[in-house]
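User: Sequence recovery, please. Input:
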């Protein structure tokens, strides 16, 4: 009989919620700690589904590639992880689809970074192409600061050799995190903070936020552009309309769950994963 596996590196709140949701539904669900195994191995096979819940993008992507080769359906698929795991890939995909986002540019030198900032106008935000939780973000207000930060980045190794620069958006103390499961927007929260970084992992507080028809339409466009079965989309609400800031393919969701939104996100993820076991031989795109 088909089974849902949950591969994880650390048992966070989200993974505990998924285990409990599966227990309540009495489905065939097996949590597996990735550090206890070598990969590839004999776990699972064609028709099974894998929830890839490692903390790091590199581990998740490597894991998905490995188990997909054995015929498992991964959530999300490795190609979607690759898009969401790199901000350059995400931004270019959104740009191709005509989805509104903050102005962005890529530089490979100090001179290029200075040119980007001059065209955008200060302040700008420097982000590592690969990363989460708002780590290593820098709001840059002037040329002197940009020169200093760029010089540091260019000496930190290949991971920082492509400099992702985004126009700073005054989001008035909050942004929106929306969750899409199975292509359907299911919840949204408003993340508030006195700091310009509003991630809940960095101390932002979460409030429920209504899913308007306009927002749902935009989120469905994002899903069509990115693909996948589970996405979390970070957006800015501006006077001129919505801007998509980032798209997450392996999101934490505890702030979008339960008391805050009234939505059982974990239960919907488990239901979606279990229904995918019926698609033996089919890929998930």
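Assistant: Recovered sequence (285 residues):
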């Amino acid at each position: 009989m088909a089974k849902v596996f949950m591969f994880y590196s650390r048992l966070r709140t989200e993974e505990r919620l998924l285990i409990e949701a599966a227990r309540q539904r009495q489905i065939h669900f097996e949590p597996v700690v990735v550090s206890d195994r070598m990969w590839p191995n004999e776990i699972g096979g064609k028709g099974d589904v894998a929830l890839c819940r490692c903390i790091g993008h590199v581990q998740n992507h490597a894991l998905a590639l490995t188990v997909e080769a054995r015929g498992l359906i991964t959530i999300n698929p490795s190609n979607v992880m690759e898009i969401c795991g790199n901000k350059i890939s995400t931004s270019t995909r959104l740009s191709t689809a005509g989805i509104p986002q903050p102005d962005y540019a890529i530089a490979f030198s100090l001179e290029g970074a200075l040119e980007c900032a001059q065209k955008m106008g200060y302040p700008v935000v420097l982000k590592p192409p690969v990363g989460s939780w708002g780590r290593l973000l820098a709001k840059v207000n002037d040329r002197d600061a940009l020169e200093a930060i760029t010089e540091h980045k260019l000496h930190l190794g290949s991971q920082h050799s492509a400099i992702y620069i985004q126009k700073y958006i005054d989001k008035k103390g909050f942004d929106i995190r929306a969750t899409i499961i199975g292509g359907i927007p299911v919840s949204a929260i408003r993340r508030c903070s006195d700091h310009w970084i509003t991630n809940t992992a960095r101390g932002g507080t979460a409030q429920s936020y209504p899913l308007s028809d306009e927002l749902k339409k935009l989120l469905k466009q994002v899903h069509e552009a990115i693909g996948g079965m589970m996405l979390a989309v970070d957006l800015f609400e501006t006077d001129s309309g919505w801007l998509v800031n980032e798209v997450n393919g392996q999101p934490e969701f505890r702030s979008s769950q339960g008391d805050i939104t009234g939505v059982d996100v974990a239960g919907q993820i488990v239901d979606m994963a279990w229904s995918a076991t019926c698609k033996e031989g089919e890929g998930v795109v």
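The CA atoms of residues 106 and 164 lie 5 Å apart.
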